């Protein structure tokens, strides 16, 4: 029988294709594994705030003065290195909590020093 008419089993080329596919899959898996093992960037490495203490104080003061729950009260605001200090007397704990929440949500505030107290009854 001439060589062209000899039927070759299909498995002759299949192992080579299977090996090549397996190598590609392994290389891709190794690449993904190497990428996923990189250490996450620490929070401290994030860009520091570019908002000045004066700007933070002004922003907090503006929020407190413009808010219906806090505008009627004399709350002093001061900022040092992103730490905002609030001092004053309010009628309810809800008002104190609200003033603190407004302050914490302000850009540039790193922490809040709570000097707010309840009005004596």
TrEMBL record:
<dbReference type="InterPro" id="IPR051686">
    <property type="entry name" value="Lipoprotein_DolP"/>
</dbReference>
<dbReference type="InterPro" id="IPR007055">
    <property type="entry name" value="BON_dom"/>
</dbReference>
<dbReference type="Pfam" id="PF04972">
    <property type="entry name" value="BON"/>
</dbReference>
<protein>
    <recommendedName>
        <fullName>BON domain-containing protein</fullName>
    </recommendedName>
</protein>
<feature type="domain" description="BON">
    <location>
        <begin position="52"/>
        <end position="120"/>
    </location>
</feature>
<dbReference type="InterPro" id="IPR014004">
    <property type="entry name" value="Transpt-assoc_nodulatn_dom_bac"/>
</dbReference>
């Amino acid at each position: 029988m001439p060589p062209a008419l000899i039927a070759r089993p299909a498995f002759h080329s299949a192992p080579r294709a299977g090996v090549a596919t397996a190598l590609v899959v392994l290389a891709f898996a190794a690449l993904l594994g190497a990428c996923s093992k990189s250490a996450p960037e620490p929070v401290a490495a994030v860009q520091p705030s570019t908002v000045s203490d004066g700007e933070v104080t002004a922003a907090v003061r503006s929020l407190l003065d413009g808010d219906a729950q806090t505008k009627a009260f004399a709350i002093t605001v001061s900022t040092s290195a992103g730490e905002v200090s609030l001092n004053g007397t309010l009628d309810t704990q809800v008002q104190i909590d609200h003033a603190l929440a407004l302050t914490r949500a302000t850009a540039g505030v790193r922490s809040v020093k709570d000097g707010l107290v309840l009005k004596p009854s």
